[in-house]
Write a structure and sequence with these properties.
The structure is a single chain. About 40% of the residues lie in helices and about 20% in strands. By secondary structure, it is an alpha/beta fold. It has a six-stranded mixed β-sheet, sandwiched between helices. A hairpin with a 5-residue loop joins strand 2 and strand 3. Helix 3 packs across helix 9. The longest helix has 22 residues. The chain starts with a helix and ends with a helix.
Length: about 270
């Protein structure tokens, strides 16, 4: 890199605190193209770190969900010649998190399809200990059922929390979220504990993502323009969240709580570890 290590770490730290690329450019006087190249490089390293360190983890309760974003333009705004271009349009990040340690076990960025779901659940199977049974909870997304039965059969007690939404009222704003009128637990496989069927923790993780990644903030022009930039931003965020960021309720990092790290890592240590 042409940047000094200290300056590069400072740039990434600002990105992780929710600043946009242009804002970081103004504050640090580092060109935006250099910032984006640095983001991609750091994202590749963090992805390798996640793949190497988070394997065969002992877990008790796992929650999984998807968070929506888009690249270049929204799916409904694509022209006819762009319909087959999978690198633009809606981009969903599938996330699995251990409820007690708050460790993000795995994630996958793709379309909201059965194929993406299969890849995500297969990664979850590698991240968790195959000899220890645990409870798994998701939302009501249909492709989770066949994916879990294919890749996690005999390893999990699986349940879904199906939310029922109210119809939008007259005069309600376009971007107002639909009101949740009920949440119906559904036992899918094994013998899940009814008191532990919950997705609140992973949904709180989604809020942390939108607060910490400027490109995930709604109704702005900070959205991702390239798919690789979005993937790199996710990789950097999840590695930082697991190994560097102290969780307020745990008072340690999720990696420390899970036993895969012995101390709080700083950002420079995170990048050099990969």
């Amino acid at each position: 890199m042409r940047l000094s290590p200290d300056r590069a770490v400072n740039v990434l730290r600002l990105l992780l605190e929710g600043m946009s690329v242009r804002s970081v450019e103004r504050v640090t006087e580092v060109h935006r193209d250099t910032i984006l190249r640095l983001l991609v490089l750091a994202g590749e390293r963090c992805q390798r770190l996640m793949d190497e360190r988070i394997r065969n983890i002992n877990v008790t309760d796992v929650e999984m969900d998807e968070i929506w974003a888009y690249v270049y333009k929204k799916e409904g705004h694509k022209w006819d010649y762009e319909l087959n271009n999978q690198a633009i349009g809606d981009a969903y990040c599938f996330i699995a998190m251990e409820r007690n340690t708050k460790l993000v076990l795995t994630y996958y960025v793709g379309k909201r399809t059965a194929e993406s779901t299969d890849r995500f659940v297969s990664q979850l199977a590698l991240s968790t200990n195959a000899t220890r049974r645990y409870q798994l909870t998701s939302d009501g997304f249909g492709p989770y059922k066949p994916a879990v039965k294919s890749f996690l059969r005999g390893r999990v007690d699986f349940a879904q929390l199906v939310k029922v939404y109210a119809t939008n009222r007259d005069g309600e704003q376009r971007y107002s979220p639909a009101e949740v009128v009920d949440a119906v637990p559904e036992k899918v496989m094994g013998n899940p504990d009814s008191d532990r069927i919950c997705t609140s923790h992973i949904e709180r993780q989604n809020l942390s993502i939108r607060m910490g990644m400027r490109r995930m903030t709604r109704l702005t022009n900070a959205f991702s323009k390239k798919w690789e930039n979005l993937e790199a931003a996710y990789a950097l965020w999840f590695a930082y969240y697991n190994f560097c960021r102290v969780h307020q309720t745990l008072r340690v990092t999720p990696a420390m709580e899970s036993g895969i790290a012995g101390h709080i890592w700083n950002l420079a240590e995170l990048l050099s570890a990969a």
